[in-house]
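Example record

Each entry pairs one chain with its bound ligand, zinc ion.
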Amino acid sequence: MTHTLIQQLPKAELHIHIEGSFEPELMFHIAQRNHIQLPYHSIDEVKQAYNFHNLQSFLDIYYAGAGVLLHEQDFYDLAWAYFEKCHADNVVHTEIFFDPQTHTDRGVAFATVINGLYRACQDAKNRLGISSSLIMCFLRHLSQEKAFETLKQAEAFRDKIIGVGLDSSEVGHPPNKFKEVFAEARRQGYRIVAHAGEEGPPEYIWEALNLLHVERVDHGVRCEEDNALMERLKADDMPLTVCPLSNLKLCVVNDMRLHNIKRLLEQGLCVTVNSDDPAYFGGYMNDNFTAIAQSLELSDQQLKQLAINSFKASFLSDEQKQMWIGRINAL
Ligand code: ADE
Ligand code: ZN
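Structure tokens for the complex follow.
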């Protein structure tokens, strides 16, 4: 019953790193095609390496995997495989993160990355009816100067990128470090999001709100530690893009039954469900929905509200939002 509803609900995904959707099978295939030797002998060996104790232990493996992507077709194939998962899960709209610096730092041209991803987005619309947009993230372990260089490189592709985000190693790299480059991105008309409050303290969420002027907070689950922050998030109706299986795999929570997404929802926060890095964390959108529905005993109405929130928090037009929300309410 719950399973059927989860499948039937149209959903938007707002927190997915395309490099985190790189399944080991495709990784091996592209590595072979590009004559790159992976440090693993088999797909099983890759999966065994996916045992993380915090964010950094995951990021080290995630950046190594992304290292086999060289050509436009590689980026296309990566994104297309993700769109097929969206299709299977009834994800009808997705706002996809990509990390340009992970590729440009290895000598891959910005154009190669964006052209491959964008072509997959167009094909997803035409062949699967899935709408999408691309959000480029600055790597926060690198300098603000490097982020400015990336923003400059993106200028030639301004029409293909809807927004700017901030990801990678959170602790020690507060939003404050990037306030000037985000001000410039805002001036150029980009939509603004940032990871904050995944491993980092509530103070980083405050900075994302007050210094970067984000329109959504990615993760944000540590907001509960600060009552004034909870009140601010409610007053602003600020969306949090929560990633339950990610939080479990990266030990942000130790048991799904202890996840705070239900409490946040019941307190009226605009929380959404997302997969973050599904190839590494054990599942795509519907796996995330199923995990919380079971562990937290969510009602059908709560599942519907989470799907409604995903459209409400998206960068779709008001008309598109209303269309999808209407379909959810009719279920
Ligand atoms: N890059 C990919 N996934 C991430 C996450 N969960 N947090 C920060 N940076 C990331
Ligand atoms: Zn993320």
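Residues 20 and 62 are 7 Å apart (CA to CA).
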